[in-house]
Design brief:
This protein has about 80 residues and is mainly α. The chain has helices at about 5-10, 15-20, 25-35, 45-50, 55-60, 60-65, 70-75. Helix 2 (about 15-20) crosses helix 3.
Length: about 80
């Protein structure tokens, strides 16, 4: 199973594209991708926006945001 941050990078087009969207140095995104550092909670919603919701804050950091709500919970 691929990591959510890898899916986010792919959805954005590249590590560079994601870093440009977020306004962070590409090295940060690389560290998240390799697992050297976890994605900080403050970047989860912007990553969700960068991917058009393909990768959610819940995917990236369930320890902070909890599990994704089911469709019935969201309705």
């Amino acid at each position: 199973m691929d990591k959510p941050i890898i899916r986010a990078i792919n959805a954005a087009g590249s590590q560079s594209a994601l870093s440009q969207f977020l306004g962070v140095h590409p090295a940060f995104v690389s560290q998240w991708a390799t697992g050297r550092r976890p994605v900080p909670g403050r970047w989860c919603i912007p990553i969700e926006q960068a991917t058009g919701g393909a990768v959610t804050r819940h995917d990236l950091r369930p320890d902070i945001f909890g599990e994704a709500p089911t469709k019935t919970e969201a309705a």
